Amino acid sequence: MVKVAILGFGTVGQGVAEVLSMNAEGIAARSGTEITVKYILDIRDFPESPFADRVIHDFDIIANDPEVEIVVETIGGQRFAYPYTVKALSAGKSVITSNKELVAERGEELLALARANGVNYLFEAAVGGGIPLIRPLMQCLSANEVTDITGILNGTTNYILTRMKTAGVSFADALKEAQANGYAEADPTADIEGHDACRKICILADLSYGHKISPAAVYTEGITGLSAQDMHFADQAGYAVKLLGRVQRRADGRVNILVAPHLVPGDRMIANVNDVFNGISVRGNAVDEVVFYGRGAGKLPTASAVVADVIDAAKNRGIDRSARWVDDAPDFANNANDMIYRHYVRLSGCTALQVTKQFPDAVLVSESAQCVEFTTAPEKTGEVLAKLDMLSAEGAHRQSLLRILDEMN
Amino acid sequence: MVKVAILGFGTVGQGVAEVLSMNAEGIAARSGTEITVKYILDIRDFPESPFADRVIHDFDIIANDPEVEIVVETIGGQRFAYPYTVKALSAGKSVITSNKELVAERGEELLALARANGVNYLFEAAVGGGIPLIRPLMQCLSANEVTDITGILNGTTNYILTRMKTAGVSFADALKEAQANGYAEADPTADIEGHDACRKICILADLSYGHKISPAAVYTEGITGLSAQDMHFADQAGYAVKLLGRVQRRADGRVNILVAPHLVPGDRMIANVNDVFNGISVRGNAVDEVVFYGRGAGKLPTASAVVADVIDAAKNRGIDRSARWVDDAPDFANNANDMIYRHYVRLSGCTALQVTKQFPDAVLVSESAQCVEFTTAPEKTGEVLAKLDMLSAEGAHRQSLLRILDEMN
């Protein structure tokens, strides 16, 4: 019998209690032991919940109860989650979390603390929700050098982009729909500005390359600047517009990493990832491309991943099952502008002639009194930006700059 | 330092040696120990190979060398692979394999033997080649009751179907192309008749439900009967034709299982799995649907999965990392004709009027002097077959019967 405490009884915390209860028999068979929830910590009471009798308000009861071997942290954020996680690990309890912010910001420190205390810190649910991703990356692809990870890591923005494409609605209206459907929060900044995706690609990069990359150091562009004209070009040219987190190994051993909207060719698997779903493409030097697809958020899917980690910790008490990243290497992540892409550009206030002077290899898409649309040859984004600066000095105004995910990327 | 012996130096065996060599540094870092190939067993010599000095012809040298802790079996088939695997496990060596035939036919026995000897029998590469699948199913989805697995499990047939669709070539011509490109063997029976896919869906079912299902007991229909008219209907109606292995949990605790060509709606992820790629959809009662995609065969992709197992065994000596299936339950797998589908049917020698008498809810697709095409309402395949028997007694001749993978399936 393994006893678990759940910290934070919000959507995911409730999902964890529900999955442990509804699949109790199978979970016991697969764990080799029964797993039960002893405490649920929250500031609220839940008199209507079937778990009402387990709700407490004092974390120290959990920290001081030697019967509790596993702590599930589903509080989110850092304010409470961080000190509670430190205390739980220090008290010799394994901690399982879905908290991508805490893992991205302090994963390295918490993994070291877990290791020092002979327990595990597991966070399969922090990236890709219910999708098996971290464990496959760490275990199943361990024979590979990972050369590239490209993922649709945020369901809210993918829902918005899907609606913009299929229903032709504006970004603002799609966002309102997402909020009405419970897919976006009242303050959607972390999603639509790309910060959530950024935390997740950082975690995947940390795991794959063994160095902590701070989200603050990563070029992060959200989807708020996307217009109907961008969607129109994408449709015409056979692309889907997707917000991608990308990390790419460089020849010098460092990595390029960014979060930005991309034009994805329709025949790529991730182009077909729609609505709130996530899809993550991983390339390794032996396996070539593998793609993982599923629900990146939601009560039961996220709980599925959390409980899988609980089972892993319960089955493997005393065995180190945690990920490992080596150190904080400030220069490890490179400038995203070094990445080579074809780009889609739309300018107003200039002519095609001016464009082709700066971009002799450009392919013109359209020219009108309002704007010039073109795609560049493959080159570094930084070089494109420099040329656009020249055009801007001649009076051009940039309406759009989108990266194109070619097969070569 | 962990020493490995490779049995069978064909495509996959060579890939394993190559991956262990090319990624040696990263593999050592991730395993916590260096992994080297001590012996390669084959009846042939390989004087040109960089591994020529390790080739031997006598299995007993391996069985009797206590330095060899891990044996990689990439012989295939059962004749040599089975006795060698038994001897290696009995000698206290973990065995890693990509041999789906051996796992499907004797996995239960070999897992028990491994367990009795305190070693591991691992076979991630046996299903889905390089795609992380077995370990995610066993570990990451362990909080779920698996309700359905639906997979494109054979790359050869998927290549043929892709060519039939995109190039409009006949089955016979597409098969010739596949053979010319090295995607199909000289004797393609195991692929095109569905036996390879059948072994794989049996392994996935065994793992998910804990009972051995014998491939011989599974309804298995290949793709040799597919015609240009089938592809035409699929195209018109927005379906892709895919050879699917499926296993589905029934309310009575048993499973329905089959291998057959299906019509897959274009918006399903697996409809977009083309060429030699594999794609496997798994549904669980918490996670909903997850899909795994990648190369289901090939030298380095398959070796990627084999070497991941080697790393797992090397890292976890003395720890049970193997899958578990419980017993041989002859009545566990049910009749595939119990599965409920909409069906696509094409008949000659009868009229639409005759069809609607037997199938009052049918949707007529076309009627001509040559044939009547229609789709049925959702019902058991067995019931459809019974009605077709009635029509057959009236002189109708069945040209085609295809299952439609609706969202309800």
Structure, explained:
- Two copies of one chain form a homodimer.
- With 409 residues, chain A is α/β, with parallel strands linked by helices.
- Chain A is built from 14 helices and 20 strands.
- In chain A, the strands form three sheets. In chain A, strands 7, 9, 10, 11, 12, 13, 15, 16, 17, 18, 19 and 20 form a twelve-stranded mixed β-sheet that branches.
- The termini of chain A are far apart.
- The model of chain A has no long low-confidence stretch (mean pLDDT 95).
- At the A-B interface, helix 1, helix 2, helix 6, strand 13 and helix 12 of A face helix 1, helix 2, helix 6, strand 13 and helix 12 of B.
Topology:
2 copies of one chain form a homodimer.
Chain A: E1 2-7, H1 11-22, H2 24-31, E2 35-41, E3 55-56, H3 59-63, E4 68-73, H4 81-90, E5 94-97, H5 100-116, E6 121-122, H6 134-140, E7 146-152, H7 155-166, H8 171-180, H9 189-192, H10 195-209, E8 211-212, E9 219-220, H11 228-237, E10 239-249, E11 255-265, E12 277-284, E13 288-295, H12 299-315, E14 327-328, E15 333-334, E16 340-348, H13 352-358, E17 363-367, E18 372-375, E19 379-380, H14 381-393, E20 397-404
Specify the oligomeric state. Answer: homodimer
* Count of runs of 4 or more consecutive helical residues of chain A: 14
The portion of residues assigned to helices of chain A is 25-40%
Largest sheet of chain A: 12 strands, mixed
Mean pLDDT of chain A: 95
Strand content of chain A: 25-35%
Structural class of chain A: alpha/beta
| Unreliable residue stretches of chain A | none
Task: Give the overall shape of chain A, derived from the CA principal axes.
Answer: elongated
Number of distinct beta strands of chain A: 20
User: Rg of chain A, please?
Assistant: 23 Å
